[in-house]
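Why do we care about 3D structure at all? Because function follows from shape, and shape follows, mostly, from sequence. That is the central idea of this module. The next example makes it concrete: a single protein chain, its amino acid sequence, and then its structure expressed as tokens.
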Amino acid sequence: MTAAGPGVRTLYVAGDSTAAQKYASAAPETGWGMALRFFLRDWLPVANHAVNGRSSKSFIDEGRLDAILDVITPGDFLLVQFGHNDQKKDDPARYTEPWTTYRDHLRRYVEGARARGARPVLLTPVERRRFDSAGNALPTHGDYPAAMRALAGEADVALLDIQELSRALWRKLGAEETKKYFNWTATEQDNTHFNPPGAIAVARLVAAELLHRRVLAPGDVRRLDDEIPESWITWPQGA
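And the structure:
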């Protein structure tokens, strides 16, 4: 036990560029993992291992899951969000098939965390910004979210359905307003990656669902309804 709260428990994040730490050269691009700590109490630090361009497969093949499992301890959490890069059929280093190899790889995260006394949490991939001519926010991840939902049910794993929650938010905001949440700049129109407001909005969804799904207790979260200043986001120099 610590003076700050009921004991330090770390939230490890395994994922892709939508969650990853960004550096000064990439600003204003922001991963939601950079903003998650704003919604958690001090006894819940975030260890963000998400890396640009990784899939559930390549993250494992590069030894990145092992690096987490080497340090994760009982009581910690492993948040797993993949799907964007698993879809890349032309890249055998990253591609997985949703109902077979994708699920097989996700099981390795689940089983690895549980073997070490940590709690796995599956997050469906956050939705891209894509609208039809009628202004409807469209799904872009094919069967990957459904495959993850099915695995979560079979393996009794907490599931945060960030794909559906983010798509609902984009639908509410609309095609034009969502440009303020994605990495749209004078030189780039990026419908996948976030700027600070987008990363903060998605991190808020994640923290709220961690509470809603009873992964975390009410006392573990904070500021769920507060305005978070963009200035809280910082981009350090390169790793």
